[in-house]
Amino acid sequence: MDDRPQPRAERRRLTHVDRGGRPRMVDVSEKAPTARRAVAEGEVGCAQETLTIAIDGGGPKGDVLTVAELAGVMAAKRTSELIPLCHPLPLTDVVVRITPDRAASAFRIQAEAATTAPTGVEMEALTAVSVAALTLYDMLKGVEKGVEIRSIHLVSKSGGKSGDWHRERPPVETVTPRGPRPRGVRGPARGGGIRRAPKRPGG
User: Fold this and answer.
1) What is the pLDDT of residues 24-37, one digit of tens each?
2) Can you give the three-state secondary structure of the chain, one letter per residue?
3) Which of 81, 95, 141, 151 is the least buried, fewest Cβ under 10 Å from its Cβ?
4) Residue 66, phi then psi, degrees to nearest 5
5) Which pTM does this prediction carry?
6) 71-80 pLDDT tens trace
7) How far apart are CA 135 and CA 187, in angstroms?
8) Which of 117, 133, 144 is nearest to 40 (CA)?
9) In the predicted model, what is the mean pLDDT of residues 120-148?
10) What is the pLDDT of residues 6-24, one digit of tens each?
11) pLDDT tens for residues 138-184?
12) What is the largest CA-CA distance in the chain?
C-alpha cells in the first residue's frame, strides 16, 4: 500500500472553502434542478414526570409538542438565513414529527424536507430537528433544568448527482435463550467430555 501523501489537487477538500482558505457559497448555476428529499432525526431526553407534563399539555408555556413542531417547520424555511453558506431553496414539503418515547424517557424528533432545486436539502431537515429540539428545551426548562438535546443526525437523502444515501442502523443485539441443562451434568465440561453423575450402587 502506498502511504505517501497524495498531491493536494487529488485530496478531498471542503466545498465551502476556496483554495485560498476563504469561505464561499458553492456555485450550482450549472446544475439542473432535480427532486431532492432528506430526513433527519434527533432526541430530547428528560425525566418521566416532565414527559408526562408535556404530553398532557400542562407545561407553563402551553402545548409543547405542537409549538415545537411548528418551530421546526419555520426554521427549515429560514435555513439560509441561519447557516451562512446555505443556498435559499424553494421547499416543496416540510414535515416535523415529535413522538414521546416513555421507555427511553425522551422525545423522538423526525424532520423531512423536500425541494426541486440544484442542491441538496439536508441542512433544512437538520435545522428543523435542531430548532424543534431547542424549542422543546425552552418550553420545558421551567419544569426541568436537566433536559438534554442529543443525537441529531441525517438519516437519509435522495436525489442529485451523489444519488441516494441511507445511514446504516446498528444491528439489534439478541440474546439466545439458554435451553435446559442436559440431565446428569454436574458443572462445566472437563477433560474434553461431560462429567456425569456417578451411578448408584447396584444401578
Assistant:
1) 677 788 788 999 99
2) CCCCCCCHHHCCCCCCECCCCCECCCCCCCCCCEEEEEEEEEEEECCHHHHHHHHHCCECCECHHHHHHHHHHHHHHCHHHHCCCCCCCCEEEEEEEEEEECCCCEEEEEEEEEEEECCCCHHHHHHHHHHHHHHHHHHHCCCCCCCEEEEEEEEEEECCCCCCEECCCCCCCCCCCCCCCCCCECCCCECCECCECCCCCCC
3) 81
4) -65, -45
5) 0.73
6) 999 999 999 9
7) 58
8) 133
9) 96
10) 444 444 666 766 677 777 6
11) 999 999 999 999 999 999 999 988 889 999 877 655 555 555 555 55
12) 96
Residue (of 94, 86, 98, 97) closest to 112 by Cα position = 94
Residue 44, all three cell numbers: 430530547
Distance CA 74, CA 133 (A): 13
2 catalytic? Reply is: no
Catalytic residue among 3, 27, 63, 138: 138
171, with CB counted inside 10 A (0-12, 13-18, 19+), is exposed
Residue 183 CA, chain-centre distance (Å), reads 49
Measured distance CA(102)–CA(79) in Å, rounded: 31
Residue with cell 426541486: 116
